[in-house]
Write a structure and sequence with these properties.
This protein has three helices and four strands. It has helices at 14-30, 62-69, 72-85; strands spanning 3-11, 34-38, 53-59, 86-94. The protein has a four-stranded antiparallel sheet. Helix 1 (14-30) runs antiparallel to helix 3.
């Protein structure tokens, strides 16, 4: 059953954040993920106006999405973002 990685982010340091975003597409592909939305136009319908970047990635299964997020490769890439370049909220949700 497909699952979706859904994230909202705020970029604090575009140069450092780009080091993260340059690495992530290949990591996602390795785990069977397909980016459905990454950046682009958006309209906040409800909730705080803190995040200005939205990401949706489809994985064949919840387990593959979780494996991607918890992989050493992703952890290494995310270190650029986690060092203060960005703030992110991420969830993985299985479709019904």
């Amino acid at each position: 059953m497909p699952a979706y990685w859904v994230a909202r982010s705020k970029v604090n340091d575009p140069v450092e954040y780009k080091k993260y975003t340059d690495l992530v597409p290949a990591i996602i592909a390795k785990f069977g993920g397909k980016v459905l939305a990454r950046g682009g136009r958006f309209q906040i319908m409800e909730g705080p106006d803190k995040f200005h970047r939205f990401i949706v990635i489809e994985f064949p299964t919840l387990e593959q999405g979780v494996a991607c997020f918890t992989s050493p490769e992703y952890d290494k890439a995310a270190a650029f973002r986690r060092g203060g370049a960005g703030e992110v909220e991420t969830i993985m949700v299985e479709s019904v």
